[in-house]
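tool_call: predict_structure(chain=1)
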Amino acid sequence: MKKFKFTINGNVYEVEIQGFEENIAKVEVNGTPYDVEIHRDLKMTKTPTLVRAEAPPPKGKETRIPKVSSKTTNMAVKSPLPGTIISVLVKEGDKVSMGQKLLTMEAMKMENNVLAEKAGIVKSVLVKPGDTVLQNDILVEID
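tool_result:
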């Protein structure tokens, strides 16, 4: 583990500390192993117990979770990475299905397909081949 040289009363000692277990150190002095007791206060680590206050009961309207409409309109397909548009495979008014390839872009020297995340009708195509886009730029809007 760690090696030290000590000189005591003109005598040189080579000491290697091999390990610790609580307050006992295992050392080797000039090739002879020893267990050395260390006189110190042992620090006991204790995991703290978390005590949390009880949450107050909900009042009136808070007991119900408001419903979110499952019909979302105008979904924006965004660029996953900065890159350059290579080809656009859809145009305004096209009907697309979920998972359909909308366009291809080059990002980080790789071609990436951008897919429709929901079925619908293409409301607008905001890019054309050769355009450079940043991450999260809107590429296509689906209604």
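agent: The chain has a mean pLDDT of 84. Proceeding to next step.
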